[in-house]
């Protein structure tokens, strides 16, 4: 396998020489995997090769991937980008990045998405620390902290400040009081999130640690989520003490970032997955289990955290997706590996720290041999976890997997029970055996466990904002846009019958202008003018609270969604009936070629069962603001 430093690197995959014969025609399968060369170009000129995990998987996953080092004009089945989705000339296949994912998991955007869900379901989303967005919410932060201190004088909080676009621990610091925030200069040009610091984490060997879990978002619609059965535990390198004014600045005690702690003199590189400053999560679970901890409940809580977080992210992801890959136009499907950083509290409650759109897939680390001279040393812990994640991701997104299953079924139908012994005797020479033999036969079981839609029934009630986003996308009007104009918002109000004598269209315009102006002032993307999804969600919540005043917020929103969906379904039915009626009237005036008579169309059957839904929404028709 050769590496390319120019253009898009392509990999060809030959899934076995011949998959079999069917009707005399030779069936061959060939796959192409295109890689963005940015993954390699920074490493091509090092004297010691820095091995990245994906090429290793090509050698071990038995899928026979071959590279086109200088790209390829013909389309590929899989495109593997290094950072984000950025190709507009891909019209088929699968891409390993979702449009907008990098933006969605930034600290501010993630905090806003989770906060929306906390407004609806506060108990279900209590796994994310209380957060404030700087600089816009700095006065609110100061006021709320003062109020909480007044109500509880014994409360002595610590807060952690994280720059919005920061990574690898860059720019993170701890404070004891809002007045300690560094507001001069940098915070205005570099927004940040400030959160309550978790002062009582679970310790192992007196050290604080976090968990990096790998999550595969295989599909957005329908939603399909997989979680790796093992992950990484990254340790601090100084014994933990609760924050005080004296130790606030000791990053090796409080921050678990690998990129920071690797520079500590106490960092331990170990060939064992059970020791050192980076270990497997499974080794931690074994240790907890030996102490009598309920490991099954812990895994259940982590799975719940992952599903709920992705449910919070999917509404806006769908807006980005339809913008880059509009419905009805040729385009690729997407999947993505995410890195979830989770901290365990002393009571084993998992807390979400952040989500990484581009988790590191290096399986070795640099070791300084002498000043300025480094050598890349393999990391058994990274290799054990990351190779399995990439390998099984390729297996799950294999575009020919279904085709192989179909061929196997077709072949086995032609193999009778009477000839089974003959087949066993000479199966290696038979084309039918080539069809039934899977390239995955020599691979271990999948390390990725499906958690959604497997547990969909337990979490579907949380997907209210998803349904609001569907309404937003419906009224965007122009394909490829991400913001709703005033005309689209008025059409939404009119079609859903939300205006009346107490809420006129003039009030609709005022609501649109006020909310859109406020969101635009927060630094939301100004490339397009109009109302972003977050602003639309706020407007929708406002309408729900006006219409259903006596209900909790999530019931208000659910009721308004039902109300809107009902009227839009009725409108769609009316349009279909009218459209079909026009076609039928046109066909009715066409003379019959055989006897000169006119054809009379049959009576049209309604497309929706209005009787079944009328009772459900009877109160909606009579309701007024």
UniProtKB/TrEMBL annotation:
InterPro entries: TTL/TTLL_fam (IPR004344). GO terms for cellular component: ciliary basal body. GO terms for biological process: microtubule cytoskeleton organization. It holds the Pfam family TTL. SUPFAM superfamilies: Glutathione synthetase ATP-binding domain-like. The keyword Zinc-finger does not apply. GO terms for molecular function: ATP binding; tubulin binding; tubulin-glutamic acid ligase activity. Keywords: ATP-binding, Ligase, Nucleotide-binding. The keyword Ligase applies. It comes from the Eukaryota. This is Tubulin tyrosine ligase like 11. It comes from Bubo bubo (Eurasian eagle-owl).
